[in-house]
């Protein structure tokens, strides 16, 4: 070591100190960057968790709406079945009432010596020959009923035997 110039040892020591300083500085800076990155990662993870929670709540809301829609559809189906059953019962009752009326009219025709109908003509044929709200009398007149007023006969007479005027009101005034 005697033949080394005097500046080499202090230069090696300075280089070692500089190297040591760079290592320490790198560790400090690297630690800080690592902490900053970890903090950024924590914030990002929190954002992702918040977004996932928001999406979970949205999914639960859609599932709830789907269940409500399904229940509503089931209720509507049950109501439709109930109405269908009610309609069938009413049709059966109407058919039975119609059969009773037909039977009563048939018996009346058999008993009435003035009916003028052959014994083979049934009441159903007479009832079906007219539209709902119409009735044919034995003298051939046809009554047509309206929902708004009393029965109006097609031969121009009102239900109380009077005659309708030109405007059809039976009040004597002639309006255009």
Automatic annotation (TrEMBL):
Region (Disordered): 35-176
Keyword Transmembrane helix (UniProt): yes
Biased composition (Basic and acidic residues): 36-117, 125-176
Keywords: Membrane, Transmembrane, Transmembrane helix
Ranges that cross the membrane: 6-30
Domain of life of the source: Bacteria
Name of the protein: Uncharacterized protein
Species of the source: Brachybacterium nesterenkovii
């Amino acid at each position: 070591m005697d033949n080394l110039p005097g500046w080499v040892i202090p230069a090696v020591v300075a280089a070692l100190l500089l190297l040591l300083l760079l290592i320490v500085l790198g560790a400090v800076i690297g630690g800080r960057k690592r902490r900053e990155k970890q903090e950024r990662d924590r914030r990002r993870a929190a954002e992702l968790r918040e977004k996932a929670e928001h999406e979970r709540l949205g999914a639960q809301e859609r599932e709830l709406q789907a269940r409500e829609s399904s229940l509503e559809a089931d209720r509507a189906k049950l109501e439709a079945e109930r109405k269908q059953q009610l309609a069938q019962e009413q049709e059966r009752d109407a058919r039975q009432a119609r059969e009773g009326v037909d039977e009563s009219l048939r018996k009346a025709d058999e008993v009435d010596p003035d009916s003028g109908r052959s014994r083979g003509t049934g009441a159903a044929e007479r009832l079906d020959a007219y539209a709902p709200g119409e009735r044919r009398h034995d003298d051939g007149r046809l009554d047509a009923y309206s929902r708004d007023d009393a029965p109006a006969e097609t031969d121009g007479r009102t239900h109380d035997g009077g005659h309708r005027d030109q405007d059809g009101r039976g009040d004597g005034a002639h309006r255009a």
